[in-house]
Design brief:
This protein is α+β, with helices and mostly antiparallel strands. The chain contains 9 helices and 5 strands. The longest helix is centred in the middle third of the chain and has 23 residues.
Length: 239
């Protein structure tokens, strides 16, 4: 008796396929016609996940991501290992999400490149929040400026734990001298979400100011960013 080939397997979601594909097209159309503001956070995530998950219903996955991390921005900023804790999220999806995060950060940094930073303060705050506000650990970043207050470099000098980053004031000033920077803006994040400066933050900032001033390096501000807003040392008159 001739051997017969088994019948082709039927996808488990075959009955749902037409509606599933229709939902994708309807979401794309709404995005094109009404713009991103017409979409909820989970819907914008759905769009981002379409390419990485072409044969999956991305709506429940997107909703799980929002439920776990809180917002669209927090999903993009989440560590890859934590993103993969959500069922359906693999390396491809993580790469796409992190690429979007990097693109947003680079676009905002590019807006500072050829402009006087002090006259673009809202852009500075937007960039700092996008780059650091939702990070899971503390980071200490320095914006190095030239004599025209144009951005020379933007560097993360230290990374720490969820509530502490070791900062060495002399290393900060040394790096400014290496870059021929005449002014700096200090930035760090509070993963707790509360940007209120701690006593240690204030003492560290004053140490940097004291070392930098005799060398002709101005500290324009120290900005702390968190999910719940930001704090400016200049605005609070802390130095």
């Amino acid at each position: 008796m001739a051997k017969q080939n088994p019948p082709a397997a039927t996808p488990a979601n075959a009955e749902d396929a037409p509606d599933y594909l229709g939902h994708r097209e309807r979401l794309r159309e709404r995005f094109r016609e009404a713009g991103p503001d017409a979409l909820a956070d989970y819907e914008l995530l759905e769009l981002l996940l379409f390419r990485a998950l072409p044969r999956r219903d991305t709506k429940p996955i997107a909703k799980k991501l929002i439920a776990k991390f809180g917002s669209f921005a927090e999903v993009l900023a989440a560590p890859p290992a934590r993103l993969k804790e959500v069922s359906g999220i693999g390396e491809g999806a993580v790469s796409d999400l992190k690429a979007v995060e990097a693109a947003a950060s680079r676009m905002m940094r590019g807006q500072l490149g050829n402009r006087t930073v002090l006259s673009s303060w809202d852009a500075v705050l937007d960039y700092c929040r996008a780059a650091m506000a939702f990070a899971a650990i503390e980071q200490f970043r320095v914006l190095f400026l030239d004599k025209r207050n144009h951005l020379i470099a933007d560097e993360v000098l230290q990374e720490g734990t969820v509530d502490h980053t070791p900062v060495y004031p002399r290393e900060v000033v040394k790096r400014a001298l290496e870059l021929s920077s005449t002014a700096i803006i200090l930035v760090h994040n509070h993963p707790s979400g509360d940007p209120t400066p701690s006593r240690a933050d204030i003492q560290m900032t004053q140490s940097i100011v004291d070392i930098a001033k005799p060398l002709g390096i101005a500290v324009h501000d120290h900005i702390i960013v968190g999910r719940n807003g930001h704090a400016s040392f200049r605005g609070l008159k802390l130095f």
